[in-house]
Specification:
Blueprint lengths: L1 E5 L3 H12 L3 E5 L2 H10 L1 E4 L5 E3 L2 E3 L8 E6 L10 H4 L3 E9 L30 H5 L5 E14 L2 E13 L7 H12 L10 H22 L3 H6 L1 H20 L8 H11 L5 H7 L6 H15 L4 H16 L9
Parallel strand pairs: 1-2, 1-6, 2-5, 3-9, 6-7, 7-8
Antiparallel strand pairs: 3-4, 8-9
Length: 330
C-alpha cells in the first residue's frame, strides 16, 4: 500500500509514522523546518504508548511521490479548495482521499440515500463546488480523529492521547478500500474502526467542537474553565442541544447525551482547543466547517439555532479583527 500524507503536521506525521511502522510505503509531504528535520532525521514520536522513530520518504514536492493508493489530508479544511496543485500529482484513477478534518465535510450529503437533501452541496464548506472540483466526491473517505498530538520541535511529534481514527464511506457500508486502510492503520498501532455511517461519529465529535472551539477563542479559556463557569456551561449546553436537533434533521443520529459530552470535555483539563491555538498563532480560524456549516444546515433543515447563530457571528468578527491593523495605525 502506498500512502501520501499531504500536510504532514502534528496529526499527519503521526499517522504517517504509524503506517510506516506497520509496513506501508509512506511519503510525507511537508515544508519548512519541520519537513527539513523529518527528511534529515526521520520522524520521532514521543508517546505514553512508547517512543519510536521511523524514516519514511519526506519531500516538499508531491511530483516526487506520484500517484498513491491513499492520500491522507492533514490540511485544515479551509485549505482544501486551494490544494489542487499539491494533490494533483498524487492522484491516480483509483486514489482515495482520506480527509481527517474537523466539522462538516464537503461530501456530507453525498450518497445520503432517501434524505430530502441527498447530494445537496453544503455551500459553507464547498462554495460553488470549489472543493469538490479539487477533491472528487467519488474519492472521499471520511475520517473522524480522536487523537491529540503536537509538534514539540521540528521533526518531533508529541502524542498526548487517543489513537482512534474512525473511517467511513460517504455512501455507508464497508468497502474493500476502507477495510484495507483500516488494516494498515491497525498494523501501525492505531485504532481504525470502519463505521457503517460515519455521520453519527462526525456529529458526536462536532457537538464538542461547535461549542468549545469558538467559545475558547472568544474567551481565551481552556476546556475545564469553560465547563466550570456556570453561565458558559449553560451556553455550551444550549449550543449542543441545538446541534443535536440539527444533526437528527440532517441524517445523523449521534447517540450521546449533552451532559456526557460536557463531562468528557471537562476531563481533558486545561487544554486549549485548536481554534484558540490558531488564534494565538495568528492563523486563520477554522470557522466554516466547525460552526458555519452547522448554521447553514439549520437553515436547510428549518431547525432554529439562535445560540449557534450568535456565536458564529461573534467568532466571524474576531477572525476578521484579530490580526487586522488597527484603524489609524501606521
Amino acid at each position: 500500500m502506498k500512502v501520501a500524507v499531504l500536510g504532514a503536521g502534528a496529526i499527519g506525521a503521526y499517522v504517517g509514522a504509524a503506517l510506516h511502522r506497520g509496513g506501508a510505503e509512506v511519503h510525507l509531504i511537508a515544508r519548512r523546518a519541520h519537513g527539513e528535520a523529518m527528511r534529515a532525521h526521520g520522524v520521532r514520536v514521543l508517546s505514553p504508548r512508547g517512543n519510536f522513530t521511523v524514516r519514511p520518504h519526506v519531500t516538499d514536492d508531491p511530483a516526487q511521490v506520484g500517484p498513491a493508493d491513499f492520500v491522507f489530508l492533514g490540511l485544515k479544511a479551509n485549505s482544501y479548495a486551494s490544494c489542487g496543485p499539491l494533490i494533483a500529482p498524487l492522484l491516480g484513477e483509483d486514489t482515495a482521499i482520506v480527509a481527517a478534518q474537523n466539522g462538516i465535510p464537503w461530501w456530507y450529503f453525498h450518497g445520503l440515500t432517501g434524505h430530502p437533501l441527498e447530494d445537496r452541496r453544503v455551500e459553507t464548506v464547498d462554495p460553488g463546488g470549489a472543493v469538490s472540483r479539487v477533491l472528487e466526491l467519488r474519492r472521499a473517505i471520511g475520517c473522524v480523529v480522536y487523537c491529540s498530538t503536537v509538534i514539540e520541535e521540528p521533526g518531533v511529534i508529541r502524542h498526548l492521547e487517543g489513537t482512534r481514527f474512525a473511517l467511513g464511506e460517504p455512501k455507508g457500508g464497508v468497502t474493500s478500500r476502507c477495510a484495507a486502510l483500516a488494516d494498515a492503520m491497525i498494523a501501525g498501532g492505531l485504532k481504525a474502526p470502519v463505521e457503517l455511517d460515519l455521520r453519527d461519529e462526525i456529529w458526536v465529535k462536532l457537538m464538542g467542537n461547535v461549542a468549545f472551539n469558538p467559545l475558547s477563542a472568544l474567551t481565551r479559556a481552556t476546556m475545564v474553565q469553560m465547563c466550570e463557569h456556570p453561565d458558559t456551561r449553560e451556553l455550551v449546553t444550549t449550543m449542543m442541544n441545538e446541534t443535536l436537533a440539527i444533526a437528527r434533521a440532517a441524517g445523523g443520529d449521534p447517540r450521546v447525551s449533552v451532559e456526557k459530552r460536557i463531562n468528557g470535555a471537562w476531563r481533558v483539563g486545561h487544554h486549549k482547543t485548536s481554534m484558540l491555538q490558531d488564534l494565538e498563532a495568528g492563523k486563520p480560524l477554522e470557522i466554516d466547517a466547525i460552526i458555519g456549516a452547522v448554521v447553514e444546515l439549520s437553515e436547510l433543515t428549518g431547525v432554529p439555532a439562535p445560540a449557534l447563530r450568535h456565536v458564529h457571528a461573534a467568532i466571524g468578527l474576531l477572525d476578521q479583527t484579530a490580526n487586522a491593523v488597527p484603524v489609524g495605525a501606521h
